Amino acid sequence: MSDPSASSSTSPKWSSDRFFQTQSAPSNLAEVSSAASEFVQRHIKEGRRVVLVTSGGTTVPLEKNVVRFLDNFSAGTRGATSAEYFLSAGYAVIFMSRQHSLAPYTRHYSHTTNPFLDLLADPATHVHTDSPASTSGEDNITVLKQHVAHLRPILSAYHHARTSGLLHTVPFVTVNDYLWLLREMSRVMQPLGRNGMYYLAAAVSDFFIPSTNVPEHKIQSGKGSLVIEMDQVPKVLKPMVEKWVPEGYLVSFKLETDPNLLIPKAVGALQRYGHQLVIGNDLNRRKFEVVFVERLSNTPAAKTEERGGERPVERLHVEGEEFSATWMRLADSSPDEVNEGGGKGGEKELEEDIIRELCSRHEQWIAKGTAGAASR
Ligand code: 9Z3
Questions:
Q1: CATH code (residue 346)
Q2: Is the predicted pLDDT of residue 164 greater than 80, yes or no?
Q3: How many whole angstroms from 192 Cα to the centroid of ligand 1?
Q4: What residue range is the signal peptide (predicted)?
Q5: Which atom of ligand 1 is nearest to the CA of 72?
């Protein structure tokens, strides 16, 4: 496969308009849209804030009858964990995630790190002593005692999320579907105005293959090497900020593997798209360290000073504008100690702090809007 960054391709850049005019929408878009709209309208009526959390990686299929595809790295841990903290903060959550990636609550029992069946007693050997009706163990399956304390609060929160109508899920697989659904969810959430937050943690492919260039059938290996040409995915954050949800509080993530690029790339994204906050994370340190990059005018002023000692805040001057970079770290963790799937041993999770900070920034964003309206 050729390296797209080294390619001499002359393909024109795609505008988002051209993308949506030519690339087909998911077949169930209307259905997904109306269910999400009902969810949002209910929460608007109840005066609740709503957050769209995107999560997991996006694929680029190489064939229409897809046998092979390219994928972006993400287990969906960040998004699933964050959704839980948003729910406990009282938000209604639209969880738009890669099909089969980690989900709120069930993520604690990921099949690879903490298989669900390992929690249960072997029915062949376990005898129920507290239930005479089922001493044979045929009617009940028992959770092993050592797992009960951890499972109980997760199970309660899971059932609460299911029955309270505060969590709405929207799955995607391909990057095309992701872009269509992001636009649709934005449309549906636009009536929330400043009460809507957009937390874009999904790992979105930078490249895609326009549908006219995707072969119908499985690519055959007879011709030797495979060269793939991909076009750049349109930068939808721009229309999202300018047209789709101009009043929303919009947070994007920037993933890098070279730590020196993290802050400059985050600043670049803020300059290009004009949204409120970029959370930068390094691939290998993402579980215990992130950096909040924002325009200094959006950085909660009092907190910047107050947090100076606790959280290092850098001030940056770029092309006549001022930005801040605030590091947020889990105390005393190292990459080896932090579990994939998270939360297994009830340890502190970085998302708890991230979401607390976001809720307070969102609160100020809403207050600014109200103050602005009052002074007009
Ligand atoms: C992230 O940076 C997420 O935090 C991770 C989470 C994907 C690193 P895990 O699922 O990982 O917890 O294992 N997401 C955004 C990545 C991304 O695609 N950003 C684009 C970019 O960096 C901009 S939208 O250019």
A1: 3.40.50.10300
A2: yes
A3: 25
A4: none
A5: 18
